[in-house]
Amino acid sequence: MRIFQHVTDIGDLSAALAEAQEVKRNRFAWQNLGHNKTALLIFFNNSLRTRLSTQKAAMNLGMNVIVLDVNQGAWKLETERGVIMDGDKSEHLLEAIPVMASYCDIIGVRSFARFENRADDYEERILNQFIQYSGRPVFFMESATVHPLQAFADLITIEENWKPSNASKPKVVMTWAPHPKALPQAVPNSFAEWMLAADVDFVITHPEGYELDPQFVGSARVEYDQMKAFEGADFVYAKNWSCPGVTRPEDYGKVLDDYHKMMNWTVDAAHMAVTNNAAFLHCLPVRRNMIVTDDVIESPRSLVIPEAANREISAQVVLKRMLESL
Ligand code: CP
Question: Average pLDDT of 271-295?
Fold first, then answer.
């Protein structure tokens, strides 16, 4: 595997999930694979889980790891070609990428949406430059539009916790929830993309105006009545996202309504009561009593900690496959 961006990059999902369980049973079995190989993890944005779980996964495989916080200690990078660099940016990404690539074998990059221009974000201009100019396998550690390591960990968690009863497949509901700030669509985009590829009954619920990009949600069922969407759910996946600008590009990246008016979308006990004793998922970090109430996230049905722990496993499968392709 040379690029990890979309669900299609992982190939057969059943095989990937089986491999995840194999890795989980014996995560140190492939120490020789990464011997004398270096992973470079580049962060343009903050992280707790991605930073730690990906480092841990690389170390499990015997790799050396270099972590670069671009905004702390590195030269400020210009990303646009043709700019006269007379401002505060001392280095261009077009030199920085091949230089960084010369010190490593595999590159992971985190670079969030900037919300300046929808087309720039949805064209993945930063990550695509890494793919084009590094000559190394590149995996997305949350980009402007996708967070595949998270979605893979989410799917692993759902598979581990699905106990078939009458239904042949679980009902998975992804719900928008309120947040005071404008957040990117990367997590919901990837979650939708991966759920559509998986064997689940998938429903998305959000207020009108927050329709996700069709390239990720395809023909997924959208239910604007949140309580109706929750009925019979086996898994509830909560996440906020800002306006994707699908129907009104001028609204891209905006919070459409004051969050105080949207607090009835917070996932609370009343919402969970209409589900099929659903498990609760969130990628974290989460703002309590905005996205989800204390009692729901602390309940025995909350899977947020094992979900975060599975980030190590999803990262290890991806790094393992990239090492195998070197
Ligand atoms: N879920 C997730 O990616 O967490 P971090 O932003 O802390 O890495």
Answer: 98
